[in-house]
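Listing S7. Sequence submitted for prediction.
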Amino acid sequence: MAAQVITPIGVGDVVSKAGQAKKDGYRLVQIGCTKIGDDFEIIYVYDKDFTLLSYRITVKEDVVIPSISSEYFGAFVYENEIHDLYGLHVSGINIDFKGTFYKTAIKHPFNVTITKEGDSCQNK
């Protein structure tokens, strides 16, 4: 089995890489996000014939991320999740729920740091 490579790209390359992947016959598999310290890592994963093509952007909370829903219509689901759960702004989503895709008790719950007396910090 070949090693899977995640290629770092800039935020400005997200849409063009999605467009090229679509042109080359790849399907969108997923867009995943995680918080690492003060940064957010977003990985875009595409598949063609069981070969994955993965791109990673690393952004701060105030960076605007362009939507790829113009290239992959269904990306709006992942992009609304990223907005609602992490509080990141994604511009140009084809179906933008404007923060109402998920109903959560805590606004942007995956961008909250919870500390308890005597416990170490936990990101939840």
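Caption to Listing S7: primary sequence and predicted structure tokens for the chain studied. Strands lie at 6-8, 27-36, 39-48, 51-59, 64-66, 89-91, 113-114, 122-123. The longest helix spans residues 75-86.
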